[in-house]
Amino acid sequence: MKRAEFTKKLIKQIAKTNFEFELLKDGDRVLVGLSGGKDSLTLIHALKHIQRVAPYNFYFKAVTVSYGMGENYEHLKKHCEEFGIDYEVYETEIFDIAKEKIRKNSSYCSFFSRMRRGALYTYALNNGFNKLALGHHLDDAVESFFMNMFYNGAMRSMPPIYKTERGLYVIRPLIEVRERQLRGFVERNNFFAIGDEMCPAMRFDIKEPYVRENMKEFVADLEKRFPDVMKYIKASFRHIHDDTFFDKTRFKL
After folding, report:
1. How many CA atoms lie within 13 A of 140 on its CB side?
2. How far, CA to CA in Å, does 111 sit from each of 114, 134, 141?
3. SS3 198
4. What are the Cα distances from residue 40, in Å, to 36, 45, 62, 80?
5. Shortest CA distance to 137 belongs to which of 196, 59, 219?
């Protein structure tokens, strides 16, 4: 059976995140949303590695949400078979629903993200999974932080683990890893990773997701000007002095 190759730095950071935030525990049944992009591909192989070396047992399964528009996921099925990863395509009617819900020239990212996440929640809960693993990385967390600040007036990012109202735990084992490390992983292993071309919204006459792209450009420019900025932002996510802002319910008086 094939095994993916990790750099020591990448797998050490993933293991550290898993240990610190207790993302995986003995007896867990973990569902992984596998889109076929670099993030989710890295995630399934990271979980496979942890499964081999951890002193506890857990089960995980990769599931791809089909939007119901005739997608072909044979390459993902074959990939998972080669590496001994349980895999299934979850058929939905999200594409048909989108035809009714999305208006011309409207934004689409949040709609498909919500629908895909909802489908994964439903599959997980209906099939006895207690955790859902997502492939968000540090760049996602930082971009979301600035998006919430600049567009919503809120200080919010992406936690490594949280519990949904329906009782399902959502975990992000890659949340402290840089996006470029994930890109390097798939390139090193010669994995085929899909990009935005597989997004169902590309079949609609809609606006481009300029907000997320603006944040990517903003963070990239920030890093050019201040090379260590991501290191310090990451550190700041652990050192939160919430009594120093304009929320009187948090003041220490």
Report:
1. 16
2. 5, 17, 19
3. helix
4. 6, 9, 9, 12
5. 219
One-letter amino acid for residue 40 of the chain: S
Q: Find the Cα–Cα–Cα–Cα dihedral 133, 241, 244, 252, rounded to 10°.
A: 110
- For helices 179-188 and 138-147, the axis angle rounded to 10 degrees is 150
**CA dihedral for 221, 114, 151, 135, sign (positive or negative):** negative
pTM of the model: 0.91
Partner residues linked to 31 by β-bridges: 61, 132
**In Å, how far from its chain's centre is CA 28?**
19
pLDDT tens string 53-78: 999 999 999 999 988 777 789 999 99
Question: 212-226: b or e for each residue (b if 16 or more CB lie within 10 Å)?
Answer: eeebeeebeeebeee
